Amino acid sequence: MAITGEAEIVLTSYGNDSSFVSYDDWEYAVAADSLFNPVIGDIDHDGSEEIVAATLGGYLYVWNLNGEMKSGWPREVAQILGCPPILGDIDGDGFLEIVLVGENQIYAYNYTGSLVSNFPVRLSRSTNMGLIVSTPVLGDLDGDGLVDIIFGGPQGNLYAYRYDGNPVNGFPLPSGFPIYDSPTVVDLDNDGDLEVCVRSYADGFITFWDLAVAFTEEDLSWSTFGQNPQNSFLFPDSLLSPIVVGQFLPTSSVYNYPNPAGEETKIRYYLNQPAEVNIKIFDLTGELVFEHAEQGQVSDNDYLLDCSKFAPGVYLCRVGAQSGSLKEHTIFKMAIVR
Fold this sequence. Notes:
Strand order of the largest sheet: 1-2-3-4
Low-confidence stretches: none
Order of helices and strands: EEEEEEEEEEEEEEEEEEEEEEEEEE
Shape: globular
Helix content: under 10%
Largest sheet: 4 strands, antiparallel
């Protein structure tokens, strides 16, 4: 259950081998999968809330309040997920990201359905840390003005990761017990500093870490399970930040991944305003071999390119964007291998 900003209830239920999301006069069925608790927030900053829900089987859905699936969704995130998603502006651009954890990995998506740069993050490349069931929370643990992703692991560590996919300095912290519950970010002793606490599932004892970082308003954006003590699972509009307007089409934001590519690759670009986008691919003789046009949104955008009909080799990819009289383009090299 989650509660919208108008104090209306969004429900998930299960029956007849399907899970359901229900709100107002509509219902959406997810066949043969279990839904976690939905979360609610204005992820695209359009003045209206969206409903976000994930399934145990690894799918992520986003609807508007009329029950319509938002463009770019659903997404297949992973083979299995262990807890519901959360919402928060982890990169400071004014838009809410969707953050969730799975088996040994952290995922972060923007409202268009694209992965945030540098995500997913693998916790360990040498060993599998197992399925994470500790729902993340957010708090600025390093004082850089951006919230960090905080959660516990079944091996007993408290993890914290930055918006760029790197661990916060000094983390992970050992707890001495497996962590299955959500941490809480709080100023427990009213000293102006931030504390993180987590409960032991086995004996109920609570461990606190007192960090030498100032406790700020941003630490309240999603600081405990369910966003607040009432477990509304709602990101309040009052905590939304203004949209940050940067360069129209930053050169550093335009690339493809993976590169070199095999059967497919994603062409990524960032826009600071909606624009008509044209993607052209040339071989090294200058011959145009592919062209695609689409409407780009404010955020990171991904276009999935089918490379199966391309001969192995090096190509030039030109991404151009136009919004009114504003026009920019960037060219980069991409390789295709078999």
